[in-house]
């Protein structure tokens, strides 16, 4: 990576900007399509194993927490409708140190999503060919890719790149068709399960909350619940490619979470009600049945709904593949945004005549293939992606709070009500989700964060002797390291998956609340001066004008 000599967004010379081809439905469906990926195929069973019938509460709480975060990004996304916004917003408010760290964490998280969606599709497809095989890891069953599975996974990743190379307009059209398909299938599943076999006693026969609130909160972070909702971000990441950001961005972010939240709660109710009593006779943690490598299709089979099972096995390829397609797009846009911020090589910011950041897309493809090796199963990747992505979202509420003071007169087409209430609650929610993920997963995440810090140190050393040293805005970004270190410490002290158990359920939430308040307060104290932010904002507007003026806004 290399840094330029000024703390401002950069444009690769001679390179056209991104095309504004995504309309209202396209942006909304990009978010919905990303939310309804492999998570819906596995999340209901995983959540039931972790929380029992109370998994219904887990889905509802998860939706509320993600909606709080999404509201913050909806305001920011309409203020600055640029591709890769999650990375660019911290750059404007807190400078390059905060921007680099946010970008690194976001990049690590997003690079993992296309591979996990491919793994999810191939796990269901194991019914037809030996793409995966069953293993026991840490007492849990996982399905890892076989040699054949790896070959097919590479082919699917290549297909994602080819579709994206055609251009964002075609991506939006393909995705819209696929989202209609996914919505139809999930609606049919819910209706079929509820009408064919619904055992109301399943919700109470072994207690509604067999694992207490601990199980409810664990399910939110580790069962694929938050992982499923993370797709709302597409409304932000693709904001620079939509024709009417002030209308489309809030609609995509808020509408996608509300719509899919309702769908997922109903799906969980239908799943629990459809189970036979013998399926969880040994306790909810041991829910199992023949063919549970594809749990929803297996239930359809033993209910005698063979036609639905066939549809589900088809959808098990379509849904994850569509989400993987979306994330190849988004990951390349994040690399593009990091290049524009000066936190990555300028080559990543170059686009083709079609307006596609091809170099960024190639990097996403290669790194995605590498990730198949250490994480060869859906189950091994889901917690890592959840924690990493939510951690990257945590900076958004702080940026919003800072900009309320830095840019008080800035036009806000969409404004989050309630002053600091929602930004703080969304920051608190982000920290809770990371904490609930547990130390066993977070330890790997913070190793990845340390690698990012090493890269940051290398970049600083390389550019500290220039005649015009790069302005890293160290003070404005000084809240980042205490935040990350504090979260790592709290996770290690907690009693969730691998923690030492010093913090228990009744003490952890107040401690995380106080910790969140301290970081929130400190970040506001060290934010960039208003004049600097105005300058950064003007440069951001110039870039938006360049992207629109070069290629024109098209529906």
UniProtKB/TrEMBL annotation:
Membrane topology (UniProt): Multi-pass membrane protein
A GO term from the CC aspect: membrane
Keyword terms of this UniProt record: Membrane, Transmembrane, Transmembrane helix
Pfam families: AA_permease
Gene Ontology MF terms in the entry: transmembrane transporter activity
Keyword Ligase carried by entry: no
Keyword Nucleus: no
Protein name: APC family permease
Location in the cell: Membrane
The Amino acid permease/ SLC12A domain, residue ranges: 27-461
Membrane-spanning intervals of the chain: 21-42, 54-74, 86-107, 145-167, 179-200, 212-230, 251-273, 293-314, 356-375, 381-400, 445-462, 474-494, 500-523
